[in-house]
Amino acid sequence: MSKPEVLIKAVTVQKLSYGQVARRYGVSKTLVHRLHHRWLEEGDAAFRPRSSAPHSNPNRVPGPLQARVLELRDQLTADGLDAGPDTIHTHLLGEGHRIGRTTVWRILTRAGKVTPQRQKRPKSSLLRFAADRPNQMWQSDFTHWTLSTGAGVEIIGWLDDHSRYLLHLSAHRRVSGRTVTDTFTAAADKHGYPASTLTDNGMVYTTRYAGTITGTGNPNAFETLLALYGIAQKNGLPYKPTTQGKIERLWQTLKKHLHAHPATTIEELQVVLDGFRDYYNTQRPHRSINRRTPAFAYELIPKASPTAPDDPNLWRVRYDRVDPGGKISLRYANRMMHLGIGRPHAGTDVIVLIHNTDATVIDADGTVLSEHEIDPERTYQPQTKNG
């Protein structure tokens, strides 16, 4: 017998007054009165316990805001972007809405938008390794992608290890050694040179394993460029891609987006990559940097920089094309210099071999076109010997 039934029977069967029932059972007289009148109106249905939940909740999320949560979920998913509670919560805060991340998760769960998963290892238990400052270390890698026409292309990226800021992202028919040096230099000219780099052991990054297992290859153009600026080069262990885990994780996020935005040409793909890079840097919150955007984290504290060697004794290779004025441009000791080759060689593809301050310019057949003794105090570098 339920409590309502006991109180009602005391009034209807025992003929006790409301006050007597209240004193006997330690309840309020008002409750006894309400239950008795409910019985008079509903009969035995009054014996069933009623929910104590309020008819309205002043803290309930308004319907339009709940609809906006679900709209953002569908929109981000359709665009091939992360659409979890954290990302949606960040977007809502940017729109001026006041709502908690847990509330967003509950709305998604009630709407059946969250797929239950088995219990995973807590992310807080993972050991994370990251550079202490922006530009302290850049990660780089390239990945393959297929255009909607079936043509294969390759995408190279440069990522700041500290902030996850995506410094560079571009598509190429094939990533070569020159692609690596050109993209690295383009990113460095815009963001400053890093103190170190971290890549795999691909030949476009290092020749340390060229020739034999122990490695007998001479430094390639990228290795020489890093040595020239005093940039430490770090390479992951062979067959251990987790060493470059940050940029490997980037490829997962990127390819999810590319599937939602198929491109027919490499030019169309580059437009998609530019849009993704802007969103990734300025709008997408990152779990590993306390839900801040990479752009915010990259500019928050001073950047690190390399320490140039006093006596580099370095070799460097550069590929270029002689301009209509008969010159090529060369960055040396953080200065842009112009080497005079001669107007008759305008349009010629050349290779510049540099050893300390000596520069030799040759064509594709190996013919020496000019030689120069670089003067760091001058912008224009005339020939010392004519080829």
From TrEMBL:
- Entries under InterPro entries matching the protein: Homeodomain-like_sf, Integrase_cat-core, RNaseH-like_sf, RNaseH_sf
Q: Which part of the chain is the Integrase catalytic domain?
A: 130-302
Family matches, as Gene3D superfamilies: Ribonuclease H-like superfamily/Ribonuclease H
Q: Which residues form a coiled coil?
A: none
What is the recorded name of this protein? Transposase InsO family protein
Q: What organism does the UniProt record list as the source? A: Agromyces flavus
